[in-house]
Amino acid sequence: MTTTSMRRAPHACFDAMEHIDACTAPDGLSSEQIHDFDMALQFLQQYTGSTGTFNSYRREIERLLHWCWHITFKTLDGLKRDDIENFIRFSQRPPAAWIGIKKAPRFLEKDGKREPNPEWRPFVATVSKSAFKKGQTPSKKDYFASNNSIKQLMAITSSFYQYLLLEEYTYTNPVALIRQKSKFVQKRQGQTKVRRLSPLQWQMVIDTAEQMAADNPGSHERTLFMVSALYSMYLRISELAASERWVPTMNDFHKDQDGLWWFTTVGKGNKERQIAVSDTMLMALKRWRKFQGCTVLPSPADDSPLLPVHRGQGPMSNTTHIRAIVQSCFDQAIQRLAAQKQTEEADAMMDATVHWLRHTGISDDVKIRPREHVRDDAGHSSSAITDKYIDIELKERHKSAKRKPIQVSQKKSGEKLF
Hints:
Layout: H1 3-7, H2 31-44, H3 51-72, H4 81-92, E1 99-100, E2 107-110, E3 113-116, E4 123-124, H5 129-133, H6 147-166, H7 199-215, H8 217-232, E5 253-255, E6 261-266, E7 272-276, H9 279-291, H10 319-339, H11 343-348, H12 355-365, H13 371-378, H14 383-387, H15 392-402
Parallel strand pairs: 1-4
Antiparallel strand pairs: 2-3, 5-6, 6-7
């Protein structure tokens, strides 16, 4: 490790998914390091079916390569168990020069060429949405690697080494040799808290979306339909936006032989699934189609975009734009809660994101629908994931504890402390 490598941030190696095939090794690498780069590139090219998965794998693999090349001066095939443990510790507390305070694009277009962006950093310090709205800005000294981020780092690094083993590029998986993973990843007893809207917050969101649509249908009928779909069908934002792997169309809503309506989507892991469409979601679809001048319900031949762009032609593909639309609804809902003196509810909603609508829909439905039905509609790989949304047992556990007395062990008085 050198002082220079700690004080100077490395440049990005791997471009966005749509440009990954054109990536070449950075200048100044040795032949062994170029081999590392080539193996990592081949590994990442296997994950271009999902933007989210690709971005996660690219982030962790790139950090590993930079650490190898600039900090420990080793190559992938030379890393041992102790090296991986040092890499994890490094990722928990990276040098300040490697930390950014804003998300910057990895590469920029210049004179028709893709060049590394000098403002990009391997790690980024952030603050919560509520803190940002109150004027707090990110600070490098406050950078924190969460428990989940370390778990993801270890899982992706291990997956990468399994690939290298199969390619006979290395002969061990040093991540698998770490016996005491608990020193890096804390185990949690019981359920993890699900980030979701309270009943009052959700009611305010849908009421606000309906009011926005009534006041300005040209802009906000789309908002109302988005909010309804994200909540009612537990959609991820990537399942609403068009991409190379999937373009949501009207005929993804379809009726089976029994007259039941379903929605087909392609979700996480490039897996197709059928979602049962409720009567209220079908009403939301009818309203959205009526606004667009379409027939009440789509025919099997209606392959028009489910969410066409506001101006021009084609489907919406910008997830950032979709987030901004839903966030504008959240912001107005927060204002209305504050105006009604629901200060705690308004403050608690400051950190809400689009994904909270999926969590809220699942949490509300798992109370009234069979767990297996919710699991399949949500696209969960197992019922254990769906179980995270069941908080009835937690409520009962707290109820049984609420009135427990604490008794003073004095046989004569028999008095209770409380």
